[in-house]
Amino acid sequence: MAAPGQPSPQQMAAMQQQFAAEAAKRGMTPEQFAQKQREQLTADAAKLGLSPEEYVSQLRARAMQAHQQQMEAQQQGQTSAQSDDEQSQAPATQQQQQQQTHQVPVTPGSPPDPKALAVANFLRSQNLKPRTCIMDGQRKDMFKVKRAIRAIESPAYAKAAGKKNSLLPPVTDRASAENVFKLLPLSLLALRVTKVDPHEGHNHAKPKNRVKGLWTVKIEQHQDTEPMMHYVWLYEGPQWKQKAMAAAVVAGIFAVVLFPLWPMILRQGVWYLSVGMMGLLGLFFAMSIFRLILFCVTVFVVPPGLWLYPNLFEDVGFFDSFKPLWGWQETKKSKKSSKKSKVSESAPTTDAAPSATTTSAEPASTSSAAPVKRDLTARVEEVEE
User: Transmembrane stretches, by residue range (predicted)?
Assistant: First the structure.
């Protein structure tokens, strides 16, 4: 191994080959070329007033210094290149981190993916427990991500995806289920939203007629897939029902306009139908007036008053409006007693003493030995004299 600062054997061989090549260029042998260089060194050293050995050592020191400067320049170039590589790799690592946080880019203007439409139709048919929200002044259906993922991982989805010619992508694990859900924001069928206050920054007070639970939402830039995030439906589903209803309305308008051109049998049928409807309407008004008169009479005869069809004007179904046939007018006391009875029925039953019991007097020692639960209900006690 060569000593520090001394050339290695490979370097010595390379130097000897280069020395022989230089001598051959000048038409000399290596020994003649070496003798000429020694004479030149002796002449240069005499000009500087130095011995040949001192002049050679000085040349070696300059060569070593130049070599060190060259090595330092190379090291600086390598460090700058590494820093440039690290800076170029930084955006790539950031993109990988963003992909790990499940951020989905939105591409507006592109047609919906058929697979995304199939997923949207499946989720619209499932019970995602949607709630109504306000977005851009319009009412939309909003749902949570966790319920959509749960529906995608359900056996119903696997059964639908296993059908012939089904466009639903297969789902094997949680990651594949999230990838299937990401098809919705990619095709702008559903987007992530967050709650906002429409009156934020205003000086006026909050309106009193605000509907509790009705959120005002806005669309977020990053479409993440965290379980508790909310998405709003932009896809309304198949429009054939709306189109059929619109066609029926147009046909009805044309039919009414062209009524004079109808056959005589149809016009007579419409006339009888209208008379029957007017008769039913008149019967309803007559029944309403009769039940009001009956209530006014029974208030003074048999208070608190009797109602015929008490649920006639209540917010119930058509058949429930005529049930029961009659009922007494509810007073404040009856309402309170009904509420108490409902509370008592819903409360758990306890081992309480009956309202009326017959007991016999016992010595005080017995009563003091076993603690008795205090009961405030009415009781009848018999005392033996």
Answer: 244-265, 271-302
Q: What residues make up the domain containing 28?
A: 16-56
Least confident of 42-56, 135-149, 177-191: 42-56
Q: What is the pLDDT of residues 325-351, one digit of tens each?
A: 888 887 766 666 666 666 666 555 444
Residues 272 and 319 in one domain: yes
Q: What is the pLDDT of residues 287-332, one digit of tens each?
A: 999 989 998 998 888 888 888 888 888 878 888 888 888 888 877 6
Q: Taking 70 as the threshold, does the pLDDT of residue 63 lie above it?
A: yes
- Give the Å distances, CA to CA, from 100 to 96, 104, 152, 343, 369: 6, 11, 21, 53, 71
Mean pLDDT over 101-113 rounds to 58
User: Is the residue at 295 inside a domain?
Assistant: yes
| Alpha carbons 217 and 192: distance in angstroms, whole number | 10
Whole-angstrom distance, CA of residue 167 vs CA of residue 162 = 10
Is 377 a member of any domain? no
Sign of the alpha-carbon torsion through 235, 239, 245, 247: positive
Q: Which residue has the higher pLDDT, 181 or 39?
A: 181
In a domain, 382, yes or no: no
Looking at the structure, tell me whether residues 135 and 233 fall in a common domain.
yes
Q: How many Å apart are CA 284 and CA 318, to the nearest integer?
A: 13
How many whole angstroms separate alpha carbon 267 and alpha carbon 249? Answer: 20
Q: Is 322 exposed, middle or buried (0-12, 13-18, 19+ CB in 10 A)?
A: middle
Confidence (pTM) = 0.42
